[in-house]
Amino acid sequence: MRTVGVEEELLLVDNESGDPQALSTAVLALAERRADGDSVFESELHDHQLEFATEPRAAMSELADEIRRWRTMAADRAAEAGAAVAALATSPLPVSPSIGEGERYRWLAERFGLTAQEQLTCGCHVHVSVESDAEGVAVLDRVRPWLPVLLALSANSPFWHGRDSSYDSYRSRVWGRWPSAGPTEVFGSADSYHAQVKAMVETGVLRDEGMIYFDARLSHRYPTVEVRVADVCLDAADTVLLATLVRGLVETAARAWRAGEPPEPVPVSLVRMAGWQAARSGVEGQLLHPLTMRPEPAADVLQALLAHVRDALEDSGDALSAEAGLRDVLKRGTGARAQRALLADSGSLRTVVTECAARTRG
C-alpha cells in the first residue's frame, strides 16, 4: 500500500488578542527532536509560522493520531513561548509579516518584494509514495483536473488583514502570485517534466528547484508525488480526509497509466478557472466538474471525486471513512464556514482566532 505523509503549516498567535506572533525561533528552541536528531518542527518563510511533517504512514488511523499529536505538541511548545497555534490558512487580523532569518529567506524577500512580504499563508501538503519518476509524472498528468476539488474541500481562509475577502480560500489567490505556482499542462513523460523544471530554474527567476510551486509536483526530496494545492484545514479530521482522497487519486491515476489510459486533455486555462471557482465558494456553491469543466453543485462534484477513486479506496480499506468524512464536511462546512460563523456569533475577528486556536489544540 502506498504510504502517505502530511506537512501542515500553523499560524502562531497571541492566545488572548489573536494577533499573529513572530515567535517561531523561540518555539523551535523548545521543540523535541526525532530519533534521527531532526526537529519535529521547522521554520517557514515568516516568523509567524510553524511547520510539522508526519512520518510516512500506510494506515490512515496512524496518520490521524500523528497529526493530532503534533498539533497538540505545537500548541504546548507555543504556550511555553507565550503564544498559541491556529490552523488558519491566513490571518483574519491585520499583520505586518516578519520574514525569517537565513540566506534563502533574505533572497526571497529581496527578489520578490511585496509578494514575499505578503505570503503569510498556511497550506497543507500531502506526499504519496510512487515507484518512479515515470509513474509520478503519469500521476501528475492524470490528477490535475481533480486538484481544484481538493482546494474546495480544504478551504479555510475567508479573511485577509481584517476583511472578508469574499473567497473561501483567499490563501490560494495570494499563493498564486509566485511565478511558478498553479496548475500545469500535461507533461507526457518524466524527461519532459524534468526538462521544464530545469528550464524554469535556468531563467534565473527562481532560486532553485525547491521553488517549483506547482499545485502538484514530484518532491525534490522524497520519492513521492506532493500535492500542494490545499489550505491547512481547521479540523484535523479534514486533513486526514484530504490525505485519504489524495492517495486514492494517486493510486487511481497510476492504475490508469499502467492500463494505457491517456490523461484527460483539459487545457491548463480551464484547470486554472476551476481553481478560481473552488477558491471563491469552496463547497458552498458550485464547482467545475473535472471531466466536463461545467458548473455543477459542489456536493455532486465531491461525489464524482469519490466515485472516481472508489476502487482504490475499497482496496485500501478507506471507502467508508471517506464517505463519512465527505458527508460531515458537506453538513458542517469547511473551516471557511466555521470562521464566518464564529464572526457572526461574536462580532469579533479576535474571537475567531482564539477559538480556532482552541480547536487546533483539540
From TrEMBL:
Keyword flag Endoplasmic reticulum: no
Pfam (any one): GCS2
Source taxon at top rank: Bacteria
Alphabetical keyword list: ATP-binding, Ligase, Nucleotide-binding
InterPro entries in alphabetical order: GCL_type2/YbdK_subfam, GCS2, Gln_synth/guanido_kin_cat_dom, YbdK
Enzyme Commission no: 6.3.2.2
NCBIfam families linked: gshA_cyan_rel (TIGR02050), PRK13517.1-1 (NF010041)
Entry's family note: Belongs to the glutamate--cysteine ligase type 2 family. YbdK subfamily.
Function: ATP-dependent carboxylate-amine ligase which exhibits weak glutamate--cysteine ligase activity.
Name the UniProt record assigns to this protein: Putative glutamate--cysteine ligase 2
Organism from which the protein derives: Streptomyces argenteolus
